[in-house]
Amino acid sequence: MNAWLDAFVQWTAWLGLDYHFLLDTYERDSFVAGAWVTVQLCLCTMAGSLAVGVALAAALVSGRPWLAGPARLFVEVTRNTPTLVQLYCAFLVLNMLITEVIGGANPFTPFAWVVIVISLHKGVFHAEALRAGLEAVPQVTLEAATSLGFSRRQRLWRVELPLAVRVALPSLVNNLIEMVKMTAVASAIAVGDITYASILIWTQRDNVLELMILILLFFGLLSFIVNCLGRGLEARLRMPGYGH
Amino acid sequence: MATELSLTRRCAPGRHPGKVLALATLLVWLAAGAPPREVFAPLLEWSPALAKGFALNILISLLAIGLGTLLGLAIGALNLSPLRLLRLPGRLWVQVFRNAPWLVLIYFTTYVFPFEIRVAGHYLPFPDWLKVTLGLALPASANVAEVFRGAVASIPGTQWEAARSLGFSRGQILRTIILPQCCKRMLPPWMNLYAVITMGTALSSLVGVHDLLDTAQIASNTVNRVGFTVLIYFSVLALFFAYCYPISRFTRYLERRYAFR
Amino acid sequence: MPSADLSAPLIALRDVHLSFADTPVLRGIDLDVQRGQAVSIIGPSGSGKSTLLRCITGLLRPQRGQIRVDDTAVHALHSDAEFIALRKRVGFVFQQYNLFPHLSVLENLTIAPCKVLGRERREAQDEALRLLGKVCLEHKARAYPGELSGGQQQRVAIARALAMRPELILFDEVTSALDPETVGEVLRVIRELIEEGMTCVLVTHEMRFAEEISDAVYFTEHGVIVEHGSPRQLFNEPRSPRTRAFLQHTLGRGEQDRRPFVPAVAAAR
After folding, report:
1. Do the Cβ atoms of A195 and B101 come within 8 Å?
2. Residues of chain C numbered 127-166 and touching chain A (CB < 8 Å)
3. What percent of chain B is modeled with pLDDT above 70?
4. Which strand (E) or helix (H) includes residue A61?
5. DSSP letter string over B143-176?
6. By Cβ atoms counted within 10 A, which residue in B20, B125, B195, B259 is the most buried?
7. How far is C56 from chain B (nearest CA, A)?
8. CATH code for the domain defined by B42-259
9. pLDDT above 60 for C3
10. What is the model's pTM?
11. Candidates B2, B6, B7; nearest CB to C83
12. Predicted ipTM?
């Protein structure tokens, strides 16, 4: 392992890049730990944002003004304000208020706030995609299910949702890829993700370009994985004859 | 009711979220009781600094979209070229800068570029906000190139055929037939991109540019009062919303108008 | 072929009224279908024919009037469970087929028997394959609706309705969306069903087909039944001038369309 790293550092040094931090156990470990935190962030926000998306979409199409109105308002505000400002409003304002109220035992860590804010933010985009999917399900197809004696619940789970998810899937995958990139803002409130770990290293060693390449490759890899999973799911759910 | 399935249309609620929001803000304000003076006085005091910060946000966003558009159109043109060798670098550029987190790109341009550049023997300062502008212009250019590609692809192939049958050359078809039709189609996604870039300028506070968010942070730390902190961060949120929401409304209006053509 | 029990019709509509918003669509419809009968409803587009069928299976609720299917008062049903009980007995075939595009042909045929009737999967599959054989599509069991032609999809849709073992089937302009060359295969399936004694109500624009297979024909216009009777009487000696005008218009044009293709039939009329 170390021999490989040595060779890599030598080779990159020959190219004019300084990857010596990889030979320092402490810095290397903190970088790897940062990468792992980013992966955890991605997994948590994926689950969270999809849950928020489904709930918001359900509210948007519920047809009940007292539910759909606030949901639409939330969607508009979230879409039209910067994520970083939302994160500050949550972490610096709400977190402060919570700490004021319940004292030092505040259960919300910066990590939790990042997951909450990004889940809510991307959940909005998921909800829009799902809403479009639900609206794309032809009324006549639902009518056919009704005429076959499906109950409302059966109709939703057997016909409406399967079709809506198929329509929404490409947008959902796009949103998830956007979201992977978005987790980089976690570094703004000192969550030790890969970006934050890199900042700590490059302020010591002044090797911004080298770390930048690693970060970009890392995010590229994550996006690639999400994209592959999405494509795989699309292929599995493909409806022959409907050119998706 | 299941029986009224084909009668009920899913209603589109909240036609005017902006108005609803204004109303909600007003209600919260009233519910909070008499607005305390010690919270609003500092806000008034800090408002010139905040306005200056926001002006910087807008300046960065305008420059970034301008640069990004010029660069993006050039790359888009490259991507249309029939030569593979010319298309490849364009493709690579789009892939790299569309898939990179914006924050990372901003760090990149801020730390990699020098703080001053030498032009013809003179040292010109290269301020951080300009570096951030470049950092935002990079992903903007990749997105503009993609928007451009999408617009060209959306022109039906029959237009090419018709023009070719009239004896136009490839370049002539592009210039006189395809591109004029593209402009209209590009406008909504381009405006959308502009709104996203404007929101992206908030990231500049992380590299020490004195933009709106940075100013708000300084103000919050200086005044150091709970009520003021709440107020100032939500003011920042409201300012961005007030700037971006009309753009997104207008974008949607254009989309709907073009959809019926 | 038709059952002799004239006193108790399987379907009975009395004075049915229905409006969409302010537009009246049905303005007092009376209609009877005996068990085992085939009844056709003809009339110009927008005269409320499809709406009528949707009322019978409870997809739409009339504002006034009575609808009975056997001993069920459809107009008085309220709960989902009651509607589901009705729809288990009434099959419906749509103009646009409305198959479920994400399910294979076989799954389209088995999903409702399994999920709604609670039938065994194995048994439902066997029955589905038998029905596919009946509509000459057993080789398409694994295909998806998007891979089939319109005529094939419509035959699958008929098989899907049959898989519920309904007491009657409503056909809503089932050939209107089809290419002319595939109309025949669908009509053949319907004709077989009628010959087997299935109670059928057809909304159709295929006048010749209606004349040939129906026990009774209803002519509707502007949401009312203008006249009804045996096909022979209605097509050959229509009482109402409106019926006569409609038949002249459609058949006249239809014959001009068809003459080059089937000159013998056209000449015989």
Report:
1. yes
2. 143-148, 160-161, 164
3. 85
4. none
5. HHHHHHHHHHHHS-HHHHHHHHHTT--HHHIIII
6. B195
7. 11
8. 1.10.3720.10
9. no
10. 0.79
11. B2
12. 0.85
